[in-house]
Fold these 2 entries.
Entry 1:
Amino acid sequence: MSNEVSKQTPSQTKTKLWLDIIIFIAFLVAMEPHSSGLAIHEWLTLSMMAALIVHLLLSWDWITEITRRFLGKLGGQNRINYLLNWLLFIDGTLLIVSGVMISEVALPAMGIKLPLGFAWRRLHDMSANFALILLGIHTAFHWSWIVNTFGRYLVQPVVRSFSSKQEKDTSI
Amino acid sequence: MKTIGRILIILVVFSIFAGLMVIVVNASGANAPDFNGAPQFRPEGNAGGIRPQSDANRPERGERDGGGLRWLSGAIRNVAVIGFLVTVIVWPKSVVKKKKKTAAVVSTDGKS
């Protein structure tokens, strides 16, 4: 998290960056079930739940700190960010629940068959579109963290390895 | 142990919300699948199915179509939506920050 209460070690930050990249790519794949196929869509989103739990665990200190301070002294951006994250969690829950309710591959493969639910299909589409908007706002709120962490752990190591290679070449 | 406890908290909160959603949807009656005792909205097999003409080219749920190119265009569209929101939120913020910075520089220059 980009704000005043982040206490992450570099390895945790690196893990979070890679995890977020994986979640983002998985989200893009999951958003197009007609192209990827229903089996990939369902199994991928179910497995994404584990990645999302790890994402929450890595932000645990921020979550507990803001929860404690929410009714007291807290910056406006942290407050909005906190509410937005709750909204994202609730929408994500609706997305998963409605997805499970209309599952045609994953649940039948586990031997579970649920009755047809007409509302769930519409709720699934609606919550998916809403999740895209919320994800955009979530990304915007953490943009400086994304840019800084990308630079520190992805761009700089590549640039450094290139420059050290060039130095070696010129010294030879 | 601490991590397991935290995972349990996440799962419990998730279950509470999930349970509430199921209760609300079922209680609202929006989920009623009953068509006079025949809980189906689509005829068996391919025979006799009537679809609106505008839907004729639309694939059924779970049918793959287009493959990679379609996925790519969909992904680009979704990334564009996210990119638009990021620009709309981040850009004005950075402009305000820059203005504040230049104002601070001007005021310190004026003092000196």
Entry 2:
Amino acid sequence: MTALTMPAAPEADASLRPVPWRRMAGIIWRQHRVALTGVAVLLGVVAVLIWIAGTSMHHSYAIAVACQPPGSPACQEADLAFLGSYGFLANGIMLQVLPVLIGAFVGAPLLAREIETGTFRYAWTQGFGRWRWALAKLVSLALAVTGPAWLFSLLLSWYYQPYFFSGNQSLGLTEYTPFFPGLFDLHGVAFAAWTLTAFAIGALAGMLIRRVVPAIAATLAVYAGLAFAVGGLLRGHYLTPLLTTSPNVPGSAWILGQWWTKGGVTLSHATMDHVFNSTMPTVAPTGPAVNGPAGKDQAFSSMLQYLSQHGYTQWTRYQPGSRFWPFQWIESGWLLALSVLLIATTIWLVRRRAA
Amino acid sequence: MEASGLGKRYGSTWALRECTLAIPAGHVTALVGPNGAGKSTLLNLAVGLAAPSTGEVTVLGGRLPGSPAALDGIAFVAQDTPLYKTLSVADMLHLTRNLTRRFDQAHAQARLAELDIPLQRKAGKLSGGQQAQVALTLALARRPRLLVLDEPVAMLDPIARHDFMATVLAAASADGVSVLLSSHVLTELERVASYLVLLARGRVRLAGEVGDLLGRYGQANLEELALHYLRDNPTGVAP
């Protein structure tokens, strides 16, 4: 066994410059390369699927739009082909899980594994210092996760573009509002913001719970609760909704509520159902011409005409499609603020925590 | 390391109380006591992984544990020698080199080669003795002034234990590294310790240089000294 070489004389360490930040870069990559590669592979595979499905969907959309004259059987067939190509990505549910998966599986184990396996006793006694270590890791991984998520959402925006084209309704194609609950946070900047939020929730959960698996579970639960609360309750109210009595609400509008009044009094659904059922036979007699989308539209608009002539007013509370981008920025803005707060809290806890 | 009135409480239990010590530099200090005596607590307080509930502790001549100077000058190897199990030994070297100011890469690699530890193997796949040696090598390569070891040999077989303590002793004698290590196995420490701190139930019972203590109590070795003292003075504090 060889003896160790003599060390250099200990430096006078009255004021030590901190170990430089850039040293953490290689460390973070080596420690987390599995998680980061997993995220890249996941997004990559889904991106390829979306690309394949998207090109064929855009193609059939182009055919359906260019078809003349609209309403003829050949064009109806093209329409159906387009509608049929929505596939599993149609309502966005599958893709909703991506932000939370990324956040939970990258963010939660970050600190939870250190504490669970005891390696914090190594990491926090090195010269770098524990809170600077935590800050470097949290910020770099947050960026490493949010960047690809944002790029991925560009692809999603491209994919869903045909759904929102405002000429769709007149062509007999379904038109979705860009606010459609399952789709709003898949494009624009909201997807990246939600991914960042999931990561921040995961990091804090990992620090509080200190065990990997429960931290992941808690992250999934908290994120799901937050996403439902925002989508269902909060998002409609970022800006005061508009009210209109016009029966022609554009397809791009996000309808928050509809109700009927007569003479200033709001009527309940039960009452309106009764009114509809009793007036339907007189206004829209049945017959072969009525069965078919055009026939049903005809019946419906005759009904509306009849009702408005008799003093019934339909009110719609909605957000216009033009507010899509302001809402995206509002939502992403407060999600960003929340994420910063969560990450700051996590670092503060690291600084404070006794073994 | 100096402590005055140091105490640490977890919930309503005091793991350490009224601990007043002045451990001089340049010694290999053995921190001994039965399980639950507070040894790990004292070491965690010394390296900055825990904060005192009462009193204070300073290291390396008046520095606070956890301060940059203290982190720089102290290398800690915790119980069960935590390494990142999924990283290779070379990765652990890279990590340690980039997290500290001083790192003697050449020495660390030479030492690992001498021990026949392959650099590319994942740390989790090494034997217990090899993991302990890797952790010790990383700690010593940081060129610390104080090396703190928490029950370093508890999980090792006798040969690994012997090798480990021989390395520690070599570092202490050749490089002037002060060592503070805890154990509940006294026979291991006979050959190495020159200063003794005996803890029982969270309080310091004995502290002093080994030669002085053995002479004062007329015991032949550390084990007899500790047993004798604990038996005769179950709750008293060292005079």
